[in-house]
Amino acid sequence: MSQADATQAAPPKREKLVTADGTPLRKALERANRRRKLTALALVTPLLAFILIFFAFPIAQMMWRSVDNPQIVNALPRTLQALETWDGQGVPDEPVFAALHADMVEDLERPRREQAIGPLGIRLNYELSAARSAISRTSRAVTDFEAPYADAFMDAHRLWGQPELWRVIKREGRPLTLSYYIAALDREYDEAGNIVQRDENRRIYVSLFGRTLALSLAITFMTFALGFPIAYFLANLPMRYANLLMIAVLLPFWTSLLVRTSAWIVLLQQQGVINELLVNIGLISDDNRISMIYNQTGTIIAMTHILLPFMVLPLYSVMRTIPVSYTRAAKSLGATPWTAFRRVYFPQTLPGIGAGGVLVFIISIGYYITPALVGGQSGRMISNEIARHIQQSLNWGLAAALGTMLLVGVLVLYWLYNRLVGADSLKLG
Amino acid sequence: MSSTTKLFGLSAAASVLALSAAAQDPVSLTIVSWGGAYTASQQHAYHEPFMEMNSHVTINNDDGSANALAGLRAQSQAGNVTWDLVDMLPSDAQLACDEGIIMQIDHDAILAAAPDGTAPTEDFLPGSLGECFIPQIVYSTVLTYRPGAFPDDAQPSSIADLFDTENFPGRRALQDRPGTNMEWALYADGVDPDDIYDVLSTPEGVDRAFAKLDTIKDDIIFWTEGAQAPQLLADGEVAFATGYNGRMFDAIEVEGMDAAIIWDGQVVEWDGWVVPADGPNEELVMEYLYFATDTQRLADQAKFISYGPARASSAELVGQHADLGIDMAPHMPTNPDNYFAPIVLDNDFWVDYGDELRERFANWMLQ
Q1: Contacts (Cβ under 8 Å, ≥6 apart) of B30
Q2: Which of B100, B225, B228 is nearest residue A115 as measured by Cβ atoms?
C-alpha cells in the first residue's frame, strides 16, 4: 500500500528513488508485482487446467466429430479411386466392382479390431437405409466371389445395383463431411447432388429446435413471473425471516431431481391429486379431466419449478441492494406507488432479471431428463434427440452436429443479449 | 524403523505371499446389466453360485445396460476397457459387433453342451445366436390391460382390440419408439405375423402402419422408461399399456396390480451376453460364460423372473417362483399357451431401417 502511494506521489524524477537496500524502487516494485502475478497464476492454474481438460477439449472434440468422416476413406481406397471417373449415372462398370472386391478382401484379412468394413456399413446406413446389411451380407461371401464381380455383388445384395448407394459412397468418400449438419437441418442430397428439404414426414430437428426455443422462453418467463414477487417479498423482509424463507426457495435444490419429477406426476396426472380435487368439488366432470402432464404443459410446469431458484437468487441479491429511500423519495416527489415502482424500483432490478433470465434460459435449453419423463410427445426438446443419438443409435456424428448447432445458437443469443442489454449489466449475486 | 518392526514387516509380507500362492489372487469381474429385478435374478441364478465355486472371484454389478452401446464405444476408443461382460439386446450387439468393439463368439467351442450332449448351436432356440451374442432369455413386449376399465362381458383379448377405440375406449400407453408399435399396427390391420417385416420394408407398408396408428393417436400416452408402463396402469391413467412381460409379471403377481396380459401378437426378442474386446479378465469371463449359460443355470433364472430360458433343454427344468411358489411355466413367453401368435422381432430389419423409421415416428408423434 505504502509502495503504491509512493508511486502515485512520485514526482517526474522517480528513477532516483531507491529502497532501503539500494535497488531502484521501480525494480523492486516490478519484482513484487511479478511475484504477485505468479502467485495468482499458480492459484488459477488448477481451474484453468480443469476447464481446458474437461470443458474446452471435449467441446472441441465434439465439433470435430460433427465433420469427421474417416469410415469410407479408410475402407474403400481403391474403389474411391476407380469411382473418380464415374459420372454418377447408372451402375458403375466392372473395374469399380473389381476394386471394391479387392478392398473388401484385403480388409477382411486384417485382424478384426482393425477391420474397416463394420464401421463402413454403419456409416453408409446413416445415408441410405439397408446399406449396412448390404455391406455385412456381402462381406460374408466376398472371399468366394469370382469375376465378373459386378454380377456377384448384385446377387449378394440388391443395393449394389442401385446408383443411389454408389452416389453415397462417392459423395461421402472424403475425410470431412457436412452430411451430419445437412441431416440436422432436415435436409438431404437429391439425385443431382443438390441439397434439398427432406420428405415432409421425416423432418424433425428444425421444428424441435424451434420448440426447444419456445419452451425455454416460456419457462424463463414463468420463472420470472413467479420469482419476481417472491424475491421482492424476501428482499423486504427482516434478514432473519428472509433467510428462513430462502430455505424454502432452495429446498428444490436439495431434493433429487427424480423425486421432484415424480411428485409432479402424482399431482398432475388425470387420476392425480389436482384433477381428483377439481372433480370432487364439481369444477370439472369426471370425463373431462384436464391433461396437465405428458404434454408441453407438463414440461413447462415441472421445469419452472426446478429452475425457479436460478431466477430468485440473482433477483433477491440485486433487490437487497436497492435502498428503500429511492422509492420513498419518488413518492414524496408526487409519484403514485405504481409509477414509483415502474420508473424507480423496477429499472434497478434489471441486472438481476437479466442474470436470472440468461441462467434459466441456458439451463432449460439443454435439459432432458424432465422433458423425457413428463413431456409426452409434445413436450420433448432437442436435447432428448441428442441423448438418444449418443446413447442408443450411436450416431455420434449427428449428435455432435446437433450439439454444435445448439451451442452456436446459445452463443448467438448471448451475443444478441449483449448487444441489446449489455452483459456487464448482469449481476449474479 | 527399529529392527523388530522391520522383521515383522518382512514376515507379514512373506505370509501374504504364501497365502496368495495357496489360493488364487482375488479378482473382481464387472458385469453390466439392466438393474432392478433383472440383475437380481442374475445375481441369484448365476453370480452367487459362481462366486461360491470360485472363492477368489467377486462380481460387481453395474446397471449400465441401457447405455451400454455408448459405454462400450467410449471405453474402446479410450483404450481402457473396464467392463468384463455386458448384457444387451441383439440389435445393439449387432451394431457393436460391426464396430469390432465386442468379441466374436464361437458358441460350440466356448459354451456347455446340453445334458444330453446336444451342441449349443442346436440347443439354443433357432435364430437366437448372433455373431457376437450369447442369448440368455426370451422376453416379449406384451399388451396389458386393466380389467376394471371394461365391462366384465367385454374384455379385450387381441391386438386388434388395442386399435378398436369404439368398443374399448380409454387411453393407451405405448412406447415412444417405432418398434412393436409398427408391427402391431400391421398385425391389427390383417397382416400375417410372418409377413410383417416384408410389408414393413416397403414404403406402402410403412404408410399403412402409420395410417393404422393414426386411428388411435389421440388416445396415446407415450412412455420412455420401462417402469412407466406398469405405473400408468396402476394409477388408472390408461386402460391399455404395452410393457415387458417380466415387469408386468412382477407388477401383477408380486405387487398385486389389477391387470391382465394379452399374449396375442407378443413381440418376442432375446437378451443376452456380449464380451467387450480387450477386456481385463478374458479367461475368467469365458469360464463364467460356460457356467452361467448352461442348461440348469438358464432354467434357474426363471425362478426369479418370468423370462423364458434361451435353451430348448432348459424348458422342462423351469420350476416354481422362488418366493411366490407359483408355477413359472404358464408365465413364460415361450409357453405353448402363450406362443400362439408371436411376432419374432427382426433385429436385422431394425438395424437397417431403424434410423429412418425412428425419424418418421418422431415426426409422426410431433404432429
Answers
A1: B60, B62, B82, B83, B84, B85
A2: B100
